[in-house]
Amino acid sequence: MDVAEAGLGRLCENAASGDGATGGLAARQAIETAVHHRLRPMIVQVTGRTGVGKSAIHAVLESVRLDADGLDVRVHEGGTKSSEGDVIVYVIAGAVSPMDSDFLASRPVGAADRTVVVLTKADTLDDPAAAAAAATEQLGRTVLPVMGTTAAGLRGVGRAGTSLDMADVRAVAAADVRPADLMTVDRFRAADIAVSTRRREALIECIELRGLALLVDVLRRRTAASDGDVLRVLADATGADAMIAALSSAVSSAAAARDAELHRSLQQISAGHRRVRSAVEAYLASDEAVAAEMRCAAVHLGVPIETDSEQVASEQVALEQLALWKQRAATSIDSDVRRSALALCRGYVRMLRR
Q: pTM, whole model, 2 decimals?
């Protein structure tokens, strides 16, 4: 049980310790409903048109442990009609279609943006970075190029379902294989290499020809490189890390939005039900609730913070941040920015008192 879940459990217990009057019962049930809504699994929905390569992206994301402030994160796959989810990973392939534009136009942007757009099958494009940049301009959203099948294969979760055999990759690199032999499957099969046809097909199925060609090039240029170093080059080229980082930010934003919704619900319940007011106020004054408010504020302002008690900022850093956000709160004319800055101030004051 994580810290947030434990704190919310204590809130429910404290609210239930009152008398059994009808009004008190209704308030406790409202609190339990709000807490249940906060703790339900976080759903990441991988969606897009048929045939764009959603399955490979889904496999990659399922292999990752995403931090959602203690929430269980579940990755689902569906079509463009499957838009339900706390976070959407929208997959496109090639040129942006009107369907892509229409779907993404219906999604919120800015601070509330919890949609990650991926241009997959990047290994089939001559210039995936340029294609992603063009899609970014067209959609008004960042589009990340990803070699989905290759990324899944490297993680052992691709179509083959097995890990890449680097001994076979090194055998290909050591053979008299020309770049042209790695341009088509037929040429690769016909090349004079001491690797069986079955094992060649396993390499292609795992990381595609583009991934294999990249590994061969690296091995020939860096003959002393370890398997780990070579695989790192390919992993970077797949774009999977950038996609995962973007998804992690979106998941954190979704978790912060749940905390904000929970706190609003609790304040409304407390205002209307005196019997649970002390329990609610005690929770909202707790370390975990203050940390949640800080995360919400940081998401709104687009700034990174660390609220984990094991990685708490040094006293000097906390003092500097406190002064920074105190000044921002005093000078901002935007009420939402001022409110978020004050939440960060309260959080840093709490850190300094620990």
A: 0.84
